[in-house]
Each structure stands twice: as structure tokens, then as C-alpha cells.
Design goal:
It is built from 13 helices and twelve strands. The protein is an alpha+beta fold and 323 residues long. It is globular, with a radius of gyration of 19 Å.
Length: 323
């Protein structure tokens, strides 16, 4: 099978945002897995945790158990069929074209209108050189949806196949809280609920791409890696301005994920978790997560403060008007 089957209902002459709504309507009517996933999402248990005036949401979502437990090492990836290649997709699955990618509904959503946007070619997850596509996606789906990226070593369930995601922006607590940050600088280093993050704002896509790619390169230097550094990103287009949040990471999963017995919490932070939707897949784990535990999880997987401050100094220099 090929992408032709997946794209058979697409009407590319229409605006992308309109086509997304049409796609979801068609898939809800014909794909039981999506029907079940969205129905379950509407009834999930949630709780809000607040510390120092900052809030996140913990979501009890058993349907995400497969993703949370997924092995993403090279050996495990090589041993399974790629679920983002069309020949391995369910017969009911359909999508719409966006540049050289295909947008499809996620049947195991964390938020409403949760989309996966896969490359038509099976090639590794890597954002360098594709930041412009990421920002373009944010622009054409905004302002009600935001674009999402998981790095291959910190949240991407298919590190062997390039893909983006999208979901409802107003459901992401962090995007609401960023409104309080100063908007007179193109790059701001910020710490919130244990997460060390960079916030980029710009009306110019060329400058945005330049600043973000320089940050990724600088983070690779700080990490001393030749691979893509550990990053998650959220991009949102609103009022003619791009807002991109970059989460520099130090670990894929926190210590509690690998603990045993009563100390174990199966929480595996990816981009939506970093954006303030912390997903638990087990009821007992959900009940035990409080603000202190959540903050500790974020601190353990985020770039440590000393390295973050080192990186912030580099970014401040790189994004200054003279550069």
C-alpha cells in the first residue's frame, strides 16, 4: 500500500485548517479506533497541580500505556515495522497532504484534535533543516492548534521516521502562562515548574529559523554530541507572531520510571508533558503524583541549571540585534 490510499479523500485546494476538520469528521465516521480514543479522552480523570503560582495538569490516560512503555533504542526500533509507513497503517486510516508530509488523526490522543504529521519518506527524526516547515505548519493551523516536535532521544515514539504533531493550543497550560513574559525580546530564558526553557518570539520566519537552529547547534556543543541534542518544541502562531518554546533536555525519562515497587511512576515526558499535560497510565501512579513529585520529574529530565545558564548566555549573544 502507498500514500495514495491514505490521501484518497484529500482536497488539497482547500485551506489546511478546513481540511483537518473534514478529515477528523470523516475518520470519526469510519475508523472505530479514533472513535474510541476520542470518546475515552472526553472522560479522562484529570487534576491540576499548582506551585509558586504555576500550574500543570495531570491526566490519567491508560490508552497511552503503549507509548509510555515503548522501547526506542536502535535494536527495538529495528525489530518492529514502522507504524508511520503507509503499508503498516490500519485500512481505515486516512490523511491530508502538507508540504512533503501527511497529516493524520492520532487514535490515542492526549488532547483534542491530536494529529501526527509524518514524512512521506522513511528517514530519521531530525529537526535541523526543517524548522521552516515546523513554523509554516504552526502558521497554517493556528491560532487554535499548535505544532509539536519530539526529538529522537526524548519522546519520539518513531525515532526512525520523521514526524511532527499538532493539538489544541488552548489545552496546553504553558502557552497560557507565557503571556506574562516580556515580549520585547526575541529570545527569553525562563524557568517554570522545574522546567528550564527558551521562548522565541518573532514576526519574521527567517529570523525565527536562524535563532532556533543556532540554539540547537549551541545545545549540541553544551551536550558535546554529534547527534541531534535532546529537545522538544512547541510552535504557536497568533496575532501575526510566532512563539516557539524549546525544552532542552538532559534525560528521556526520570528516575521514578525505572524504580520498582511503590517508588515506580510510569511517566515518560515528551513534548505535551513538558507543555504541562503530565500523563500517567496507571491509576495508582496518577493518585500519587503531587506538585512536588511533578516538579522533581521535570527537574530530572530538563537541562540542569548550570548548563542552562551557560546555554542562555550563548543564546543571548546569538540572538542580539547585532548578530
Amino acid at each position: 500500500m502507498s500514500w495514495e490510499r491514505i490521501l484518497q479523500n484529500d482536497r488539497p485546494a482547500e485551506p489546511l485548517r478546513q481540511r483537518i476538520d473534514e478529515l477528523f469528521a470523516q475518520q470519526r465516521a469510519t475508523w472505530p479506533a479514533l472513535q474510541d480514543g476520542e470518546s475515552a479522552l472526553a472522560h479522562l480523570q484529570r487534576k491540576t497541580l499548582t506551585a509558586d503560582g504555576q500550574s500543570i495538569v495531570v491526566q490519567m490516560n491508560p490508552a497511552r500505556r503503549r507509548s509510555t512503555l515503548a522501547k526506542t533504542d536502535a535494536q527495538a526500533v529495528a525489530a518492529r515495522a514502522c507504524f508511520l509507513c503507509p503499508e503498516n497503517m490500519p485500512a481505515e486510516e486516512r490523511g491530508i497532504a502538507f508540504e512533503d508530509l501527511v497529516l493524520m488523526p492520532n487514535p490515542y490522543p492526549i488532547l483534542p484534535v491530536h494529529c501526527t504529521i509524518a514524512d512521506r519518506v522513511h528517514r530519521p527524526q531530525r529537526i535541523r533543516g526543517r524548522v521552516d516547515t515546523f513554523l509554516h505548519l504552526a502558521q497554517v493551523i493556528g491560532p487554535d492548534l499548535a505544532a509539536l516536535y519530539n526529538g529522537p532521544r526524548c519522546g519520539a515514539s518513531a525515532p526512525d521516521h520523521f514526524h511532527l504533531q499538532a493539538a489544541r493550543a488552548d489545552e496546553m497550560p504553558l502557552l497560557h502562562q507565557l503571556a506574562a513574559l516580556p515580549d520585547d525580546r526575541s529570545a527569553v530564558a525562563h524557568t517554570t515548574f522545574g522546567r528550564n526553557i527558551f521562548v522565541f518570539r518573532n514576526t519574521n520566519v527567517v529570523d525565527s529559523v536562524k535563532h532556533i537552529e543556532r540554539t540547537i547547534d549551541a545545545l549540541a556543543q553544551v551536550e558535546s554530541t554529534t547527534e541531534e541534542p535532546m529537545v522538544n518544541m512547541v510552535a504557536h502562531w497568533r496575532h501575526g507572531c510566532y512563539t516557539l518554546v524549546l525544552f532542552p533536555r538532559s534525560a528521556h525519562r526520570p528516575a521514578c520510571y525505572f524504580a520498582t515497587g511503590a517508588d515506580q511512576l510510569l511517566v515518560s515526558p515528551a513534548v505535551l508533558e513538558m507543555s504541562g499535560i503530565l500523563v500517567a497510565t496507571e491509576p495508582e501512579h496518577f493518585s500519587r503524583i503531587d506538585a512536588h513529585i511533578a516538579r522533581t520529574i521535570y527537574e530530572e529530565v530538563s537541562l540542569p541549571t548550570a548548563q542552562f545558564e551557560q546555554l542562555a548566555a550563548i543564546i543571548e549573544h546569538e540572538t542580539s540585534p547585532s548578530n
